[in-house]
Amino acid sequence: MSVGKWEIRTVDGADVRLRSGQKGLLSLDVVAPVSSGLLHVTAHEINLTLQLALDQLETGNFLLQSAARSIVRRYQAHTLVYSGSGQAGGTWSVSGAAQAGTIEVDLGLTITPIASATSPMGEIEITGSASMGTVHLPIPGMGTIDNFSFDVDAKLELRASAG
């Protein structure tokens, strides 16, 4: 296990993908860029903080993108901030809260370190899922999604932090 602090690189492609658990017409696949982040690993604990620029999110569907951006504006959720921690061990798992505007969701994530040619901690892969209950969509005729859940998937480049 590598011990230290790493900044999450905010280069092009440093995106987190959020996919809804719904299938069909209301399936939602959103990509939001990482605006900052930090991974801190000690012998006993792992801490992860991430900030996503939700006001720059993209979907593959212009109608759903418009609805998603409307939700971001309505709830003043321009930036999603996640802070999670967990015990260091064989599997790196953190749990915490993801908050954007007035919305807060408990979120557990699994972190997998990926070695690069120059570092044993060149990248991390982050996966997880959460449930938000009922979500109201500002799309005429569609209204709400009951039991809305989403999956998180990201592969993010790291840079060793001096601090």
Q: Mind explaining what this structure looks like?
A:
The protein has one domain: Lipocalin (Beta Barrel), CATH 2.40.128.110. It has 1 helix and 10 strands. The chain has one helix at 62-74; strands spanning 4-8, 15-20, 29-41, 45-53, 58-59, 79-87, 92-100, 103-114, 123-136, 144-160. By secondary structure, the protein is mostly beta strands. Strand 6 (79-87) and strand 7 form a beta hairpin. Strands 1, 2, 3, 4, 5, 6, 7, 8, 9 and 10 form a 10-stranded antiparallel beta sheet that branches. The longest helix has 13 residues, at 62-74.
Task: Give the topology, please.
Layout: E1 4-8, E2 15-20, E3 29-41, E4 45-53, E5 58-59, H1 62-74, E6 79-87, E7 92-100, E8 103-114, E9 123-136, E10 144-160
Antiparallel strand pairs: 1-3, 1-10, 2-3, 2-10, 3-4, 3-5, 4-6, 6-7, 7-8, 8-9, 9-10
Would you kindly provide a brief summary of this structure?
It is built from one helix and ten strands, in the order βββββαβββββ.
CATH class: Mainly Beta
Mean pLDDT: 82
What structural category characterises the helix and strand content? Answer: mainly beta
Number of domains: 1
At CATH level 3, the topology is: Lipocalin
Q: How much β-strand is present in the residues?
A: over 45%
Q: Kindly provide the radius of gyration, computed on alpha-carbon positions and rounded to a whole number of angstroms.
A: 16 Å
Element-level helix/strand string: EEEEEHEEEEE
Largest sheet: 10 strands, antiparallel
Q: What would you say the CATH architecture is?
A: Beta Barrel
Number of helical segments with 4 or more residues: 1
Overall spatial form: globular
Low-pLDDT stretches are: none
> Helical residue percent?
under 10%
Q: State the separation between the terminal residues, measured CA to CA.
A: 19 Å
Number of strands: 10
State the CATH superfamily name: Lipid/polyisoprenoid-binding, YceI-like
